[in-house]
Amino acid sequence: MQKPILEVDGLKKYFDIKGGPIGRKVGEVKAVDDVSFTVMEGEILGIVGESGCGKSTTGKSILRLIEPTEGKVKFQDQDITSLTNSEMRRLRKDMQIIFQDPYASLNPRHTVEKIISEPLLVHGMTSAKQRLDRVGELLEVVGLSPYHAKRYPHQFSGGQRQRVGIARALANNPKLVICDEPVSALDVSIQSQILNLMEKLRDEFNLTYIFIAHDLSVVKHISDRIGVMYLGRMVELTEKNKLYDNPKHPYTQALLSAVPLPDPDMPRNRVILKGDVPSPANPPSGCAFHTKCPQAMDICKEVRPAFQPVEDNHFVACHLYK
Ligand code: SF4
């Protein structure tokens, strides 16, 4: 039976807004506001939402690349929010991240060999020969060749650079990989190659992914379950097919109604959301979606809806399902 590898409970990340001549705190941006979910071993959990909804901040807060403001993150039953920096550094071997922009995330002055060797050295592989062998092995695993080790990032295409990023993330055999928009910067033709590679690696190395993206078709392709975020909050979380066949939250319904269909003549009920997304520095009261929700009720302005199960394995934060 699958067991949870990661449990996120009430995660918050608020950023201070400073102002005035002495830079005093004048407010805060609630980038992640009370987000809870569980990821099972070997699962791919997709997290979707528009840009600025807090999905990337959630990923980075889980790894403590940015310190969470509040909340608990348990990785393999261990509360990692209370670990010291050096304890956390040791644990990072098991928890890795793949970044969106493969060019910006690779040091342009380092060869691929140095880029992939670095995490090996940090985690105790002191023999240069062993490191070189491992780099060659990893390059083959991601569909490149050992001779690529002597090249620099600018000598690769975008897709190849992302393969290098994946090889670096896998260097120390992690258990959990947070994929932060790993294909958004790539051409559509290359996206599917990288997605297929990531699926293959998941099966081969029994990896668990949190796959963050804004493109619903990308997330649908790769995920087992999907969480939808809006303005720093998780508003719906369920299995992929349930989400696409029977979305419950009005925001998810609007998002899915905007996904292009292969047949333009197919009938569809497009939900048009009016106005801009409110600022996370000043989110609306009650349900943060009430200013745009076509089904908003009086209670929605006053009371924040709880994120709760409405069906087996289907969580929604909406007063329609009380
Ligand atoms: Fe719409 Fe109210 Fe549900 Fe929020 S709680 S999504 S405003 S119906």
From TrEMBL:
Keyword set, alphabetical order: ATP-binding, Nucleotide-binding, Transport
Source taxon at top rank: Bacteria
PANTHER family: TRANSPORT ATP-BINDING PROTEIN
UniProt protein name: Oligopeptide transport ATP-binding protein OppF
Domain ABC transporter: 6-256
SMART domains for the chain: AAA
Native organism: Oceanobacillus oncorhynchi
Gene3D superfamilies referenced in this protein's UniProt entry, alphabetically: P-loop containing nucleotide triphosphate hydrolases
Entry annotated with the keyword Nucleotide-binding: yes
A biological-process GO annotation: transmembrane transport
Family statement: Belongs to the ABC transporter superfamily.
Residues in coiled coil: none
Example of a GO MF term: ATP binding
